[in-house]
Amino acid sequence: MNTGFSASLVARIAVLAVVAVFFQIGVVSEVPVFGVSADLSPLLVAFVGLLCGSTIGAATGFAVGLLVDLALVQTLGVTSLTLTVVGYWAGRLRELRDPQAALTPLLVGAAAAAAAAVGYSLVQFLLGVDAPVSFELLRQIVLGVVVDVIVALPVWAIVRRSLIGGLPDDPRRRRRRAYTTGGLSPLSRS
Amino acid sequence: MYDKTVRRRRAVLALLVVLSLILLTAYFGEASSGGLHSVQRGFLTVVSPIQNGANKALKPVRDLVGWFGDTLHAKGQRDELRKQVERLRGEVIANQSEKDSYKELLTLYHLDNRLSVKDYHPVTATVVAKSPNVWYSTVTIDKGESSGVRVNDPVINGEGLVGKVAQAASDGAQVTLITDSSVGVSARIGTSNATGIVQPKVGDPNDLLLQYLPANTQANRGEYVVTSGTVSSPDDSLYPPGIPIGQVTSVNEESAYRSVNVHPLADLHNLDVVQVLTAAQGSLPANLSRLAANLPAGQQAGAGSGEALASTGSTGSGP
Fold this sequence. Notes:
The complex is a heterodimer of chains A (about 190) and B (about 325). Chain A is an all-alpha fold and about 190 residues long. Helices cover about 70% and strands about 0% of the residues of chain A. Chain A has helices spanning about 5-25, 40-50, 55-70, 80-95, 105-125, 135-165, 170-180, 185-190. Chain A starts with 6 loop residues before the first helix and ends with a helix. Chain B has about 325 residues and is of the alpha+beta class. In chain B, the strands form two sheets. Chain B has a six-stranded antiparallel beta barrel. In chain B, strands 6-7-8-11-10-9 form a six-stranded antiparallel beta barrel. In chain B, a hairpin with a 4-residue loop joins strand 3 and strand 4 (about 160-170). Chain B starts with a helix and ends in a 7-residue tail after the last helix. The interface of A and B includes residues 27, 32, 59 and 65 of A.
């Protein structure tokens, strides 16, 4: 299996991650919707995993998390840990199921946002950070997921457009290739 | 090949998770002057100018997005504030109304103490309806016969005389104001004992005229006109003595009788709470009223107080 660690792809992901983190900090975080701000980082990581696979997804998650923790002067490792898991999970989804439905980005984005929010909260609780487990926290998480779902499709389109040229093994192209060469054609089976 | 890929994938995951945990543990455990904190500060130092530049560059985008959000938020705030204004306006009106009622009740209380109108068993009533015409010559109150209100009972408020009961139902009564042409009140000017009849001034229902005063009566502008406590005919109401009616505005000397123009003290356009002076059976005012009603037709009530009337069956000046 091709893991896809090409220099072009890594460069594209790096640029995308840096731009996304700064855009997140500079713009998105200051535009509240329903009282919460969208979090682009889990969406970015999940979509990279969904397009590039689990290894690149996990690595992207770690890097983006580290960047976020450094830029926001947060506890190093917390966001890295949660986003690593998110990226890996999205990559495994692609490797095992290769979902092509139109709603896949929405569902994956929602799951990624929920996992990141819950995971981040859990780690914070484990670290003993004082925060009340309240309805407000639950509301924030749910609203955060809703807002992330709203922006999921545009983010998916941008990530896909940015990485498509560097993807060595795009699933659709692979299937298209298979059909044209007769490997998966129904006619060839009969 | 497959095993190798799987092992590598899992190794990468494990490595990244362990690395995250190490970072987390080390960062969380070290002091703020520790290595990781220093790295973070260094990163911040390097990135800050970029962040500032990005922040400025992205400000239009932020403003554009914020404009939509602010507009929606402002609309929501506007609607909320409108509701709040409506609610507060209602509260202010209610408070103002209560304040006015309190003032009237307070002045009524003081009037009670000054005039001893308690003897007349005052029934406090609220004005529930006013005559729709501009003259406001009648008002309807929420107390009637069930509260002891009878026809011809005097009606006062904290400022002075208001009128008399014209009709009484079980739970309501109609009060004819002193500015109505059908009302005549036996009155005197505060410092003198000369009595006359207060009636509305022809052509100006907001002003009163104290008529039929003796020609030698001394009256000065600004003097108070009060009820005399007498009746001029058996059909008149027996108003307790000393209830303020109005102030002298001018004196007319065109006839054998002297008359003075009187401006009513009670604000008859803004009545809210009034007192009906009912005379309970067996009370002094009731006896006086009965005595007044039994006067022979045409006999005139005399000057003096209610007590004087009770003791002398006095006569007085009249038309």
